């Protein structure tokens, strides 16, 4: 079994037939279900139909015969066959008997360049085999004449196996990635360079690149330009246009998560599972906070109790208010009013002078604030005076 040559699916020769096959050689212990493509004179095996890179290649140059295998398979609809090569034998399993007949017909026709007559096929299927034989003969003829380029790894990265119309659509859709690509020519023995530029509207141009019999290529214009390889063709166009033409290179997407297929031990069902690839970074510890030092205003609020509508600047000293003249009273900026419930402890004693200028001067009272803190003893004394006055008015004999 030959190793993978590094070519992708779009770089392989013309595909004559493809489908799923279970492959197992006599050296292998278990069979594998692979997507199989008959391209040219070789079988290319892929893990899945959508894969681009093949995993195995089987050259049919050592083909001997292909026969049915009548052994029983676990799948009753499946049909087995044996592919005999000069150096090894390969066991293949097709999905059904009809697919087995087609695989036998295509492999035999391409390897022997003739359609077998012993197969049970429909007229349309026989016609497909004849077309495959003619295409394979033409491919071998061009390859022997040096006109067929089969080693596509030598192709530039901007090579795309598309037609003229598909090239224009591709350049229109991927305009941000490039505006020039290399593609197969119309007659099959040449190549073409397609470009796209904007001038009021999209302008497409196509240049034929022909292979020379003595080796190398040339751009088929009025003054032909000779180049050693197709890479030189692209480099020449980029250089002569001062980088205006940019090769269109489309990178294949990569997987964003790691996944694998696991079989359930109980029921044997296959399921796709993803590995946990996210790593949570450690959290940064919070910065230490300096202890808060209480301000004098906060200490004042905690030590002294205020009634409603009291302000922080209305703080009573133990000294007599009459001893300080109103003109020397320090004016403090007004602060936010704080509503605190009345204290339960005994009230503080205050000295109060009824003849003080503070009570008599309205200007000074205005400056000291809208309300004054009145001691509880003064309130009690005032209440008693009001009660005596009320009784004297009711009973004049008590005076």
TrEMBL record:
Offer an example of a GO molecular function term for this protein. signaling adaptor activity
Keyword check for Phosphoprotein: yes
Q: What InterPro entries does this protein map onto?
A: PH-like_dom_sf (IPR011993), PH_domain (IPR001849), SH2 (IPR000980), SH2_dom_sf (IPR036860), STAP1/STAP2 (IPR039111)
Enumerate the UniProt keywords alphabetically: Phosphoprotein, SH2 domain
Give a Pfam family name. Answer: SH2
Kindly give the Gene3D superfamilies that the UniProt entry links to this protein: Pleckstrin-homology domain (PH domain)/Phosphotyrosine-binding domain (PTB) (2.30.29.30), SH2 domain (3.30.505.10)
Question: Domain of life, per the record?
Answer: Eukaryota
Region called Disordered, residue ranges = 313-372
Keyword check for Repressor, yes or no.
no
| Biased composition, class Polar residues, residue ranges | 352-367
Q: Pinpoint the SH2 domain residues.
A: 157-254
Q: What is this protein called?
A: SH2 domain-containing protein
